[in-house]
Amino acid sequence: MDRGVTHPAVEDLRDWIHLGRDLLAHVLTPEELALSEAVLALPDEPALVFARLAWRVATVHRVPELKLPGVEEPEAALAVLQAEGLLTSEVPWPLRVQGATVAVLKAGCRRRGLPVSGRKAALQARLEQLEDWDDAPWVGLLHRQLWWRLARFATLRVHPDPSAAVLERMGRMAWVPYETTGGHVIADRQALGIFETVADHLDALTVPDALAALAWEGWPPGGLDLRRHLAHLLHRAAEELAREGAFEKAHRLADAIASLRPDDLPALRLRQALWLDRQGQVEAALPLLEEAASRAGGADALAVARSGRRLARKVGRSWPPLPPLRKAKEVRLGLRPGEGGGRRPTWRTRQGEGTIEEAVADHLEASGRRALQAEGALWRCVCGLLIADLMFAPVPGQLPVPRMSRPLDLYTPAFLERRAQAWADRRQALLAGRAEAILARHHEAYGPARMSGVRWEAWPVEDLRALAGGVSGAFWVALVERLQQQGRGVTGGLPDLLVLPGEPVRLPHAFPAKVPAELFCIEVKGPTDSLRDTQRIWHDALLAADVPVWLAKVEPRQEA
Fold it and tell me: What is the C-alpha separation between 267 and 273, in angstroms, rounded?
């Protein structure tokens, strides 16, 4: 490393320690503050060694095998770290066994007169109770938990990603410039301990511990809030109990989850009704479905209604119908199948073979019309660009650290509530038909900074503008509001393809064959595919917004 030039990894280390310490100053002990000061005061080479070791999974290292690029005097750097109490040379022999390579383990076995055959686990087993099987120096990283604590809160991520800083320096990643807005991160030392206990043992938590963690109100913000993951684990646990026949326990767990996460109630009550149906208790299942129906919306409402009708018929009762949904226009399309088999068969394109969606898009393009593979990502991209300035507005507490791709409250009802006047103005502009102009302005102002939902390289700005201008402002208003109310998962089920405006053409091997001039969507289904409830819901919403939707049922054809 050139003298006088600080290595970028050292700069990242110091930046994260400064930021993490600022956010956690009220909960760190004097010893932890002193240790962080010691790391910040390290000369460049020892700091680089510490930065490289801190990111490694292993916490103990055999010194002759340490590879430390950029460090010219590794022994001297290690000595400085030991003197500062950040490394130790007193590494217990069992830890050396776990950290040694196969070659080192075999050499150790030879030294102690033991067999050298077998897998690594067998070699480790032979040495785990022994000492003095290796005469090389070892070092162990101390206080790694403190480093991870600071890095986690500096990035608001359970698993901080150092590659983001590397990509930023390479010009492969950029961030929206904004002033941090402060905000609450963690209440006290006790809350910090609870968070770290759960974060470090997340997948090994017992059901009671997971429920207690889900009920805890002290979660730090951003990616450090693990309640969604905890709920997913508990949903799986309840389903597993039901599969094992422990229905009473499954019901108690589902009730407990519902009490903590009311938004999950429709899905939980539907599961409970199906468990009761498996037990032959249909009469007991119907009230649960009625409760679910009173709270369900979108695809959940369809699933509840379908089960309600089925179970009601079993006991000679009726179930109230839902309002009918608008249906996509069915079009039959013949394409040549490819030779690839498997779960997703391939189809012929002019470039070779591809997915069924790629084949339909290629067939349209060969006929003179461009189609984009869309699904939810394209629509979220447009929505993100339509509210880009709102995302990075200086709302107190919502951008507490640098290099965030979104504010903490994005995809929550509070996002629009906290920006009420700005959203009212944007809503009016969208309803006035200015979506395309807003998107173009934000695309130029913010690209290619990292921004939630926006994929700069996926679609040309001209295509994004065509979509923004080809759909009514009322639809964009409704979609932005649904994203904030229900989260980014709400876009699941949007159609596979978006056909851009162009000349009306006739599509070969299709019936009906006329392709309209305006923008429209296509849901692609193969011979064995069927529509999902989320897709039906979006077809209805798009048709209500005067966006035509095709349901393209693809069939194999053999002719050239």
Answer: 10
The CATH number for 304's domain is 1.25.40.10
What span, in angstroms and rounded, lies between the C-alpha atoms of 385 and 482? 16
Is residue 447 within 8 Å of residue 453, measured between CB atoms? no
Q: Hey, what are 214's tokens?
A: 């889900």
The enclosing H or E element of 556 equals strand 549-556
323 lies in a domain? no
Amino acid at 153: F
If asked whether residues 334 and 422 sit together in one domain, one would say yes
Amino acid letter, residue 460: P
Rounded Cα distance, 461 and 373, in Å? 15
Strand order in the sheet with 87-88: 60-62, 138-141, 87-88
User: Is 2 a member of any domain?
Assistant: no
Amino acid code (one letter) for 389? D
b or e along 515-548 (b: 16 or more beta carbons within 10 Å of the residue's beta carbon)?
A: beeebbbbbbbbeeeeeebbbbbbbbbbbeeebe
Give 556's strand partners.
335
**Domain end position, chosen among 290, 314, 338:** 314
Is 184 inside a domain boundary?
no
Asked if 35 and 152 sit in the same domain, the reply is yes
- Give the CA count within 13 Å in the CB-facing half-sphere of 359: 26
Please give the Cα distance from 508 to 236 (Å, whole number). Answer: 47
Note whether 47 and 135 are same-domain residues: yes
Look at the block and give the residue holding tokens 């080809």.
470
Confidence of residue 2 (pLDDT cuts 50, 70, 90): very low
How far apart, in whole angstroms, are the C-alpha atoms of residue 379 and residue 375?
7
Inter-residue long-range contacts of 272-278, CB under 8 Å, 24+ positions, other chains counted: 273/307, 273/311, 274/307, 275/242, 275/247, 275/250, 275/251, 276/247, 277/307, 277/311, 278/242
Average pLDDT of the residues of the chain: 93
Distance separating alpha carbons of residues 241 and 218, to the nearest angstrom: 29
pLDDT at 1: 44
- Write out the residue range of the structural domain in which residue 255 sits: 189-314
Dist CA 62 CA 43 (whole Å):
23
**Structural domain tally of the chain?**
3
Q: What pLDDT was estimated at residue 242?
A: 97
Q: What is the per-residue pLDDT for 5?
A: 59
Per-residue DSSP letter, 337: B
Amino acid code (one letter) for 533 = D
Looking up tokens 């929505």 gives 383
Question: What does the DSSP 8-state code read for residue 325?
Answer: P
Domain membership of residue 1 (yes or no) is no
Instruction: Let me know whether 484 and 337 are in one domain.
Output: yes
In sequence order, which ranges of 413-460 are alpha helices (DSSP H)? 413-418, 420-431, 435-446
Q: Can you give the pLDDT at residue 206?
A: 96
